[in-house]
Design goal:
Helix content: 25-40%
Low-confidence stretches: 486-499
Largest sheet: 8 strands, mixed
Length: about 500
């Protein structure tokens, strides 16, 4: 084995010492599939700090994790007295990986003699090497005080929002090690704003060569119900996964649209949100161009929301056929970290980056909002600022104190006012005429935005149906509505919902 690479040595060790824990080939020596070998060699044949492995379901994710875990516990990857962990979002999920690894140990004559199993603590120990593995879940009281050399983050796609306390605790703790390794193995998360999506998108940039991405997914432009799409996304098709069963699921999803989102996420490993957002990720991204400076009439929309939540101001101005967008967001400075956890959004990071303006105290100080509006009135030719009447009296008091008069225009939030406003927003987005620059708060609001219909097919934005804040999209929709250019074009209602 002297001429083998590190990855090849690990593959050889797995096939020599690990047994299939369950299924038709239970008890037989493991025979790694080509894609599994590629992943192992991709991780271990060059320096790796973090590996992201994303499959659809039933691709042997947990088995692969268990085999790599055992290779660090007593195989070629071991380090004396090292701590190994797997992390999951629930106790049940955490128990699955531990149970599979324990089955492999019991079935292997080689491993059974050197590894101890502690069922009650979900632990595996190799006393001779001093190595220990423990399964953790987000439901545990704490993960601080640990020092992991190797961590498996199991089904991280289940984390809603861009943060997980368990993930952050383990990744921070690993910093004490010289060469820590984390493996994230999961089906994709539903939205761009979720933690796994953030990590995948960062890995795609190639900014850190030590972050490896193995993403098995069907491209968005493929027919999602075709055999080609299924085959591309499922490298274990015909091995761990029954092809006929999968093709039957594709036909079922094709007949019943209510099943399509789950099918595309679980079978094609696409980033699909089952809640049917108003604006698809592809259409929003198509309008990511940087906004042009305002040099003509400017229109605005302001959504004050509650004083302890997010307040949004969005301005729009036209250059040629393109509308440029400028955003301002405020929130209370006090409790910023807690609100980040509640809303599953990195408010504190956005504040550091200058995208969010925290105001002193526990509620949004409208004095700061009024002062900023006064500055903008000096800078731009403000023609109209649409507002929701709720709480506007408080902002008007602050404007009166400053002696500022603005072209404020009340805007109803019901079906009558919002239907044509939503159609204007959709028309501009579909035609690539909105330059929002990918502003992170506005993009987050767009991903959260959900519209509801009345019996006549009219629509309005509904905060109660959304999973996160939509204040920025409400403000943008109102701003576009008061431009006087509600160019409703003929296209099928729901075009922006198709992901």
């Amino acid at each position: 084995m002297g001429n083998l690479t590190r990855g090849e040595k690990i593959c050889a060790w797995i096939e020599s010492h690990c047994r299939v824990p369950e299924g038709a080939k239970v008890g037989q020596p493991v025979q790694l599939l080509p894609f599994q070998r590629d992943i192992i060699k991709g991780i271990y044949d060059s320096p790796t700090r973090r590996a992201i492995v994303s499959f659809p379901r039933k691709q042997g994710k947990t088995s692969l994790s268990a085999m790599l875990l055992l290779s660090h516990l007593c195989g070629p990857n071991y380090r004396h007295n090292s701590q190994l962990y797997s992390a999951a979002q629930s106790r049940d999920q955490a128990a699955i990986l531990f149970s599979l690894a324990a089955k492999m140990v019991r079935m292997s004559p080689d491993l059974h003699g050197v590894i101890q199993i502690r069922e009650s603590g979900k632990q595996l120990l190799c006393p001779e090497l001093g190595t220990i593995y423990k399964a953790l879940s987000a439901e545990a009281s704490t993960a601080y005080g640990l020092s992991p050399v190797f961590t498996v983050h199991d089904e991280l796609g289940q984390v809603k929002g861009p943060r997980s306390e368990l993930y952050e605790a383990l990744e921070t703790a690993a910093g004490a090690q010289e060469e820590p390794l984390s493996i994230i193995i999961s089906t994709q998360a539903p939205t761009d704003a979720d933690l796994l999506s953030v990590l995948i998108d960062d890995a795609k940039t190639g900014a850190d060569e030590r972050v490896k991405l193995f993403l098995y997914t069907a491209p968005d432009d493929m027919d999602p119900f075709s055999k080609d799409a299924i085959t591309v996304a499922n490298p274990a098709l015909g091995e761990f996964l029954n092809p006929q069963e999968v093709f039957d699921q594709a036909e079922s999803a094709k007949r019943m649209p209510s099943r399509e989102s789950a099918y595309r996420n679980l079978i094609l490993n696409q980033r699909v949100d089952g809640k049917q957002p108003l604006i698809s990720r592809a259409v929003w991204t198509m309008n990511n161009a940087e906004p042009e400076p305002f040099d003509g009439p400017v229109y605005g929309g302001i959504d004050l929301s509650a004083r302890n939540d997010l307040t949004a101001l969005v301005l729009v101005g036209k250059t040629g056929e393109q509308w440029s967008v400028q955003c301002e967001f405020w929130c209370p400075e006090q409790g910023l970290r807690e609100r980040s956890q509640r809303d599953r959004a990195p408010y504190d990071l956005w504040a550091e980056q200058g995208y969010l303006n925290p105001t002193p105290g526990a509620s949004v100080n409208y004095e700061f909002v009024a002062q900023r509006l006064a500055e903008l009135a000096d800078d731009y030719d403000l023609r109209a600022i649409a507002f929701d009447r709720w709480r506007m009296d408080l902002l008007k008091l602050e404007l009166d104190k400053l002696g500022v008069e603005l072209p404020l225009k009340p805007f109803g939030q019901g079906f009558k006012s919002m239907t044509p406003a939503i159609e204007t927003l959709e028309s501009l987005l579909l035609n690539g005429q909105l330059r929002h620059g990918g502003h992170p708060l506005l993009t987050w609001c767009a991903a959260n935005a959900v519209a509801v219909n009345d019996a006549a097919g009219n629509r309005k934005l509904d905060k109660s149906k959304s999973t996160g804040r939509i204040d920025g999209i409400v403000a943008l929709t109102m701003a576009l509505a008061v431009t006087g250019e509600q160019e409703t074009q003929e296209y099928a209602v729901g075009n922006l919902v198709v992901l």
